[in-house]
Amino acid sequence: MAVDWSKLPTELLGLIALRLISVVEIQRFRSICPSWRSSVSFADINNPLLHIHPNPLSVILRTKDNELIGLHGGASLSGASFSRVTLSSSSSSSSSTKSWLIKYDSYAELNPGTLRLLNPLSRLRFHRRFKFVDLMKFTVSEIQPSYTIHSHCSKKADLGFKRVVVAREHLVDGVNHQVLGVCTDGRIRYWNGVTWTRVKDQVAHFHDIIIHQGLPYALDSRGILWWISSRRGIFRFGPQLDDDVAESCSWRRLRSLVGGSCGKFYIVDRIVENNERRSKGNTVDPRYIEMLHDDVGNTRGEAFRGHFYYTTVGFKVYTVDDDLWRWVVVKNLGDNAFVIGDEACLAVKADEFYGCLPGSIYFCDEGECEIKVFKLDDGSIETMSGGSQSCFQMFVPSFD
Questions:
Q1: Boundaries of each KIB1-4 beta-propeller domain copy (predicted)?
Q2: Residues 6+ apart with CB under 8 A from 50
Q3: Residue 251: CB atoms within 10 Å
Q4: Cα 85–Cα 90–Cα 95 angle in degrees, nearest 5
């Protein structure tokens, strides 16, 4: 017997709507039929992530007398979505189906048919803005969300944070969202609704945190993987990375964690030149220093010396060998490609996206919006403004 979905009770439709997170999910829900559209408006969506306004970690101290002046004036959680865009007429079972990869601002606006695109790999605005995307012609499917903390008194994103994630726990009466972050002092903290709280039992210095298959995992400076539970603490999940390559005066590594298919994890070391350039116009009053404030107290973080740029010269990738139970160097990603962004890192299947190169790593250098690709097989780097444009086609959707 066929089910008439248009006649579902309004109460049930309301419960479904409460579990919708992204703008596109809400739009597609309302486009099903008139009864679904009338059951909920954009104003009715009570997305708890939109209402999280955590106090920032930064505390301002006067260095002369060590006098506490107080917290910055508020902060808010900002969200974006990495998504696939596919022609709706394309058959999902067809091997020729291709997609574009976009990142759009989840919270900026809830106007039907409007998406504000962001640069997929940096926090800079995209050079184009598409309006009235017809969801009857294009299918937009979320791959992975990303988050930042924005200070209300500073243009700097992620003030006090290296990475921010949100763990979603689906309950009978809705969805519980747990906001966690790796901070500039290497500690992991979560927002308890009142203040930032340190995850207990952590002893390492952490570089990155991700949500993989619904659970939070973090990577420390020794290359050890940890599973995070804000209620029960932190638990070791993987071996230590035995890498005796020391950083030199001419280069250093920026370490990220990427979750792949079949439960695999990857460590991605970005090798950058130590020729940092201070950004213009970004200076700080020398009377002030940056501190971190949480449930324990005030902790001196990394002193804010202005923003610096760097140049990427290569990457090195590791994964765990299940038989040897150790991290090994990856020389071939197969059909996979990595997208290394400021807010999140993800693995994609190259044959699912236009022009995507298998065995490659897409990235932007700090402070730049130009997308580049690193080829793991030969170590070469190609820029989007260079000769060939085909390998960057996945980032240039055509909504015409």
A1: 90-374
A2: 107
A3: 15
A4: 100
Distances (CA, A) of 111 to 27, 35, 346, 377: 9, 19, 28, 44
- Per-position DSSP letters for 55-116, written without gaps between them: PPSEEEEETTTTEEEEE-S-EEEEEEEEEEEEETTS-TT-TT--BEEEEEESSS---TTEE-
Q: Write out pLDDT tens, residues 216-236.
A: 999 999 999 999 986 778 999
Note whether 328 and 85 are within 8 A (CB): no
Q: Which residue has the tokens 């939109």?
A: 50
Which token pair is 266? Answer: 């990857």
Residue at token pair 């900026």 = 108
Q: pLDDT tens digits, residue range 11-32?
A: 777 777 666 656 666 666 776 7
- Residue 358 CA to residue 336 CA, distance in Å, equals 5
Please state, in angstroms and rounded to a whole number, the distance separating the CA atoms of residues 207 and 222: 10
Q: How confident is the model at residue 256 (pLDDT cuts 50, 70, 90)?
A: very high
Show me where the domains of the chain are located. Answer: 8-39, 76-383
State yes or no: pLDDT of 267 exceeds 90: yes
The string over 24-57, giving b where at least 16 C-beta atoms fall within 10 Å of a residue's C-beta and e elsewhere, is bbbbbbbeeeeebeebbeeeebebebeebebbbb
Measure the CA–CA gap between 179 and 148, rounded to whole angstroms. Answer: 10
What's the CA dihedral at 196, 290, 253, 238 to 10 degrees?
Answer: -20
Q: How far apart are the first and last CA of the chain?
A: 40
Per-residue pLDDT at 280: 45
